[in-house]
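Q: Hi! First time asking for a complex rather than a single chain. Here are the components, and I think there are two in total. Is that enough to go on?
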Amino acid sequence: MMINISSKKISLIQQLNAIKENYPSSEICLITNQILHWEGLLRPTPLSEEYRVKILYELGYTPKVWVLNPALSKRKGVNIPHMYGQSTLCLFLPKDGSWRSNKLIASTIIPWASEWLYFYEMWHVTGKWLGGGVHPTVPKRDNFKDI
Amino acid sequence: MEKFIISDAKTGRLILPNPTNRDENFADKWDEEKYPNRKNEFFKWLARAKEDFLDLSSKPGFLQISEGLKKSLGDKEVVAAFEKYAKGTRSKREGGKLKMNLATGVLGTTSGVGVKAHTFFGDDD
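A: Yes, that's all I need. Here is the structure of the assembled complex.
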């Protein structure tokens, strides 16, 4: 069962424990050099591909999320929407409160990654990103200072 | 599919009733004297569609599945169906009903962790 934690920052150990508790089939879940490293398999629907996803999280910064394999691909030469530099996934609007360091990666980032993969597959089929979101003109980086 | 096609006992003409309106006959344009190819073309399409559909089960990923469906059903119809499906999923998330199975990552509405409200962000550069 997903645990609830108050408005205080959640430590890396608490993040690690919540992931281990909820995702026992994680491929990698450890902390090295004060960075949480998770890798696991996500298949957004039974008909989808199974994707190996990697998350790195350093306290004080936003989590970074990669899809390791199968490799993500452009659609007819068009870049993939909602990514940072076609490298990491853009899962939330920075500083809108949907992600903060008092939230659990287990109950936010990982489900959002699966949902991102679902809409990525739908984008490939339809040519439209149907999951909503914004593409503002902001500094293009993926390591926003956390709140 | 063939089991839905019946033969009129009196005239011998084929009838393919609309399942939602039994009075409508999808095969009413198969007049073999006027249009000798229509019936044959339909059965050729049906055979090819069956092969395509069977082939889908061996292809993981919606892109491969949709490409297979597009061959038999046409781009426009398949894209429209997938759009409807995706919009329904988004609507479930926005309504707080979408969940993710913790063991597999599969999205649904029955069990798992709720997919919390959020806004996809970033760029496409």
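A: The helical segments of chain A are 12-22, 109-126. Let me know if you'd like any chain examined more closely.
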